[in-house]
Amino acid sequence: MKNTKFKSIYDTYTLNNGVKIPCVAFGTYKAAAGDNVEILKLAIACGYRYFDTASFYGTEKFLGQAVRESGIPREEFFITSKLWKEEMGYGAAKAALSRSLEVLGTEYLDLYLIHWPQPSPDYREWKTLDIETWRALEELYDEGKVRAVGLSNFLPHHIENLLKNCRVRPAVNQIEFHPGHTQETVVRYCGEHDILVQAWSPIGRGRVLEDSLITELARRYSVSPAQVCLRYALQRGIIPLPKSSSEERMRQNQEIFSFELSPEDMYRIGAMPPVGWSGEHPERERVKS
Ligand code: A2P
User: Fold this and answer.
1) Which backbone phi and psi does 186 adopt, to 5 degrees?
2) Which alpha helices (H) appear in the chain, and where do they start and end?
3) Phi and psi of 66, rounded to 5°?
4) Ligand 1: which residue has its CA nearest to atom 15?
5) Helix, strand or coil for residue 75?
6) Which residues in the chain land under pLDDT 50?
7) Which CATH superfamily is domain 18-205+238-246 in?
8) Residue 163: what pLDDT?
């Protein structure tokens, strides 16, 4: 299907504002407790330069330290952060970015996202709140404090509300995406509106790795089940954000450029039964597995 031209994690997409973004990131949510700096230093040593964090994760501090101590110039990194549910609203969003910049120890972010479209499933005033929050992000973008602005976990009706009321269009939408949970309605809507999709939990936090189709394909292509999942996102034109605490798996997760899933296998993955959903949805209470 869509994208088979990339050769390494350093190849880039161009966002709708012209900013270039690498095609694979490193996720920092739940980087192993207590050992975050070492894990992030290891990821940098393994070659990752695009890191995804959020104020909610508690990993901004460790990422900032790892980047500084790497000695690699800040401009060689692509750093994303997000404002949390309690940081929504015009003033709160501006304060949230100041905090994130300070904790990360950086002058600017490459990408800044609204983490969830509504603070809770029953929050009725989300339309106004999202517009106010977005207005703050637009100003931060104008001021050069963030090179691009976007969304996370937004459904089409949430995005539509912003598109009708924005000056700066959202550049990305980061959603849960992996074989068995591909949120096609959201992916299609984003494609139609030039919003790049990013995949959190691209290997379904391990839940997908034992699926019979994924293991069959892994055997046939002589790769691991995780590599099948990451390659699937890549070929769909979606940025996967894998995370791992092991050097071997960090490296493995970059080695997704030497094989290509056939159109038939892409369709089979796209049509497999639901599996591995985290239980998170912006309009529902979390479903615990
Ligand atoms: P570990 O840190 O032991 O590598 P997701 O990003 O889909 O939520 O999944 C993250 C989980 O998947 C992490 O717990 C990580 O565990 C594990 N993981 C990451 N890469 C691989 C891989 N290549 N093979 C198996 N498990 C992996």
Assistant:
1) -70, -45
2) 36-45, 60-70, 90-104, 126-142, 156-163, 184-192, 212-221, 225-235, 247-252, 263-270
3) -65, -40
4) 244
5) helix
6) 1
7) NADP-dependent oxidoreductase domain (3.20.20.100)
8) 98
Contact 126, 162 (CB under 8 A): no
Burial (CB count <10 Å: 0-12, 13-18, 19+), residue 235: buried
The number of the ligand 1 atom at minimal distance from the alpha carbon of 27 is 6
pLDDT of residue 2: 65
2: exposed, middle or buried (Cβ count in 10 Å: 0-12, 13-18, 19+): exposed
Residues acting as catalytic residues: 57
Alpha-carbon distance 26 to 32, whole Å?
Answer: 14
Give the rounded distance of the alpha carbon of 212 from its chain centre.
26
Q: What is the pLDDT of residue 37?
A: 94
Task: Write out residues with Cβ below 6 Å of ligand 1.
Answer: 27, 201-206, 209, 224, 226, 242-246, 249, 252-253
| Residue type at position 56 | F
Q: Which atom of ligand 1 is nearest to the CA of 206?
A: 12
For β-strands 50-52 and 78-83, DSSP reports them as parallel
CA 243, CA 156: separation in Å to the nearest integer? 27
The predicted-structure confidence for 221-257, as pLDDT tens digits, reads as follows: 999 999 999 999 999 999 999 999 999 999 999 999 9
- Pairing relationship of beta strands 12-14 and 239-240 according to DSSP bridges: unpaired
- State the Cα–Cα distance between residues 57 and 159, nearest whole angstrom: 24
Are the C-beta atoms of residues 80 and 114 closer than 8 Å to each other? no
| Count of residues making up the chain | 289
Q: Where are the domains of the chain?
A: 18-205+238-246
How would DSSP label each residue in 7-54?
-STT-EEE-TTS-EEES--EE-TT--TT-HHHHHHHHHHTT--EEE--
